[in-house]
Amino acid sequence: MTQSTKESTKAMPLFVLMLIFVCFFLFIAFKQNNQISIANLSVFLGVFFVVISSYAIVRPDDVGQSLKAFPRANAPGYVFMLTATFWFLWNIKTENMADYKDIKHWFYIGFGVVGIGSCFYLKDFLAVRGLAVFMLLVAKLILDTQRVYMFSTPLEEATQWRLVFAVLGYSIVIVAMWMVISPWRMRDIINWGVSDPLRIYVKSIFWLLFGFVLIILGLTVFQLKS
User: Fold this and answer.
1) Which pTM value belongs to this model?
2) Could you report the per-residue pLDDT of 196-207, keeping only the tens digit for each?
3) Could you tell me the residue ranges of all domains in the chain?
């Protein structure tokens, strides 16, 4: 077995988790028209964080090697960039843009060409850029979901735990914008983060605990208040 084959095998579990993550949000976007309850979103994100952090705790070496290869990997770059492009175009189609309804077709052409063209002419750090664009759309969904919860739930019944999603959403926006501008920073951060197994464990435990908090909120607080 060649070295590249071994690395591909080690990266497969994370790649599968990535596909599940992407498919879930595409389902919400296209089938649910970007509508999801804050309870269900909390449970899904919590389960995702628990699963991926548990795998990192059990197989830190495999996760470290997979993360180091991610910034210049083509396959996840194509997945993230193309799905983000189609998701964004779908958002344009479903948004009520009265001032721009006569020129929507130019938006489809322009953003479609940029998104698809990036897969051919912007392959350097394509995975980082694709992930950043996709996460910006995820952040929009998170912020929209908590805003719907805030305005649809009576004030006396609403819980301030919704601010967890506000902080998470805006944090994703800041990081994603930074990664779009300076994608090589993600490579540097990953190399620093996986250089010491202790750093992998510490970060994994943090996201594991955060995942459990989201699951508990989704099954109790948000479920009761929704």
Assistant:
1) 0.90
2) 889 999 999 999
3) 3-30+37-225
